[in-house]
């Protein structure tokens, strides 16, 4: 089963990666830029696996670049301290 198949697993996965990045010294701007790049890749290359991902994909597809950055930043906030550690 892919982490993309289940919304909670996806949030846990992102939270874990965020924790790892922060422990390795990544600053907030770098984290947010990386989140934007991942969101852009997922929107273009990966079919949503659940309702939550479909909503994010639909929002991403109609958003301006600034709005997409805001979506990515909100995803970072959503998963902060939400990892499985």
Automatic annotation (TrEMBL):
Pfam entry (one): DUF3243
- What's the protein name? DUF3243 domain-containing protein
């Amino acid at each position: 089963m892919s982490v993309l198949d289940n919304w909670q697993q996806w949030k846990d996965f992102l939270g874990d990666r965020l924790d790892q990045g922060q422990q390795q010294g990544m600053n907030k701007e770098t984290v947010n830029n990386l989140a934007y790049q991942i969101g852009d890749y997922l929107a273009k290359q990966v079919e949503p696996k659940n309702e939550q991902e479909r909503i994010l994909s639909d929002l991403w597809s109609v958003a301006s670049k600034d709005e997409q950055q805001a979506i990515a930043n909100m995803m970072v906030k959503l998963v902060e301290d939400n990892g499985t550690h």
